[in-house]
Amino acid sequence: MTITITAFERSPDGGRGLARDTRVRWALEEVGQPYEVRLVSFRAMKEPAHLALHPFGQIPTYEEGDLALFETGAIVFHIAQRHAGLLPDDANARARAITWMFAAVNTVEPPILELGTARLLEGDKPWHDERLPLVEDRVRNRLKQLSARLGNADWLDGAFSAGDLMMVSVLLRLKSSGILDEYPNLAAYLARGETRPTYKRAFAAQLAVNTGRPPTG
Amino acid sequence: MTITITAFERSPDGGRGLARDTRVRWALEEVGQPYEVRLVSFRAMKEPAHLALHPFGQIPTYEEGDLALFETGAIVFHIAQRHAGLLPDDANARARAITWMFAAVNTVEPPILELGTARLLEGDKPWHDERLPLVEDRVRNRLKQLSARLGNADWLDGAFSAGDLMMVSVLLRLKSSGILDEYPNLAAYLARGETRPTYKRAFAAQLAVNTGRPPTG
User: Fold this and answer.
1) Do A106 and B105 count as a contact with CB atoms less than 8 A apart?
2) For each of chain A's 217 residues, which pLDDT tens digit applies?
3) Which domain holds residue B73?
4) Looking at the complex, does the CB of residue A151 fall below 8 Å from at least one CB of chain B?
5) What is the pTM (predicted TM-score) of this model?
6) Residue A217 maps to a domain
7) Pair (A12, A73) in one structural domain
8) What distance separates the 2 farthest-apart alpha carbons in chain A?
9) Phi-psi region of A128 (alpha: psi -120 to 50; beta: other; left: phi over 0)
10) Residue of B183, B156, B177, B179 lying closest to B168 (CA atoms)
């Protein structure tokens, strides 16, 4: 059955890989599943046809036969459940890898999203300059704890898993802020994710949409 | 095997049920599994023994034999996977229920957490009064979409699932704000969750910790 995902017709980040379809593309590359992409405009995302697929009017969505899913974490989890390569076979190790998926989206990502909001939606507000350091410190608080847990390991719990895929994707949002450089083991962890051939293919595919040029290599 | 979870020795909300152990207690009540609780102080949460269980120094954690988990969403998912009652048997329906679990914690909860942060951590800042309506509107944006999807249904996708358990738990954080009353079907959805005997037992159990009186009935 064909897998079809949706992505921005034109991503707000211009193809830096921060749109959430990159996470799903990466998961599909990890498990070696081909997929098709349907591009949607900002206008179409708020129309009934897309809202039927995604109640919050966002991308990505995932369609496969009569199954339709939204929400990146759930889509990545679904891919990881159905295909080998993203979750360990041992039941306890599998539960721990899933734990990192939830930790990425519910513990580490919220302060990072708040930092993005402070910059993008409140950048012109009179409180911006005074408030930004508070928000950055909330991000640092989480990074410090994550850095302590990761230590010298390559990945969060044994081999690379869907938990690492989600955590690396969340940390990618901080790349331009410079904050990650304060935690060298997290910067190295991010770089380790980015150099996976699977990530590179996912990144190239989303970039091609935004530049209008097909991926090379 | 005995299930042991951790909870606050004294919850910051004084027992209003907003501490995340309530979500795990509720899930265990739904599937009919007994559990033990180990209470931890704020000080102990930041010490090595607890950080080994929970790298972000929070509650709840979950221990069962040689399995140790943290992160509420992951714990609820683990309980739902291992015991009948919180996820449908049909594979597609199951994937959709899991989608709502992730939507609760990654799409609906972040702006609600931001609202909590604005009130609790920035309530004394000079920008608080002017900024609060912006943050509230971001919450409304999500609630409006959630309300449109729920419509007249009792639950988000067929029978009550772990997705509803997580979504109701997230919405509970808004109870004192009055915002939920602007969306009568969401207020009714929340009330539907709160009147489940399983929720009532979970709520009573966490309240008893905070009042020092054992639950009655």
Assistant:
1) yes
2) 899 999 999 999 889 999 999 999 999 999 999 999 999 999 999 999 999 999 999 999 999 999 999 999 999 999 999 999 999 999 999 999 999 999 999 999 999 999 999 998 999 999 999 999 999 999 999 999 999 999 999 999 999 999 999 999 999 999 989 999 999 999 999 999 999 999 999 999 999 999 987 776 4
3) 3-85+198-211
4) no
5) 0.96
6) no
7) yes
8) 53
9) alpha
10) B156
Say whether both A81 and A104 belong to one domain.
no
| DSSP for A71-126, written as a single string | SHHHHHHHHHHHSTTSS-SSHHHHHHHHHHHHHIIIIIHHHHHHHHHHHHTSTTST
Nearest-angstrom CA–CA distance, B11 and B7: 8
> How many domains does chain B divide into?
2
- Whether residues A203 and A142 share a domain: the answer is no
Residue A216 lies in a domain: no
Residue B20 lies in a domain: yes
Maximum C-alpha span of chain B: 53
Q: Report the residue of B101, B107, B117, B183 to disrupt the A interface, i.e. the one with the largest count of A CBs within 10 Å.
A: B107
CATH code of residue A13: 3.40.30.10
**Shared domain check, B30 and B19:** yes
What residues of B are in contact with residue A101 (Cβ under 8 Å)? 74
Per the DSSP assignment, residues forming a β-bridge with B64 are B3, B67
Same domain? A74 vs A106: no
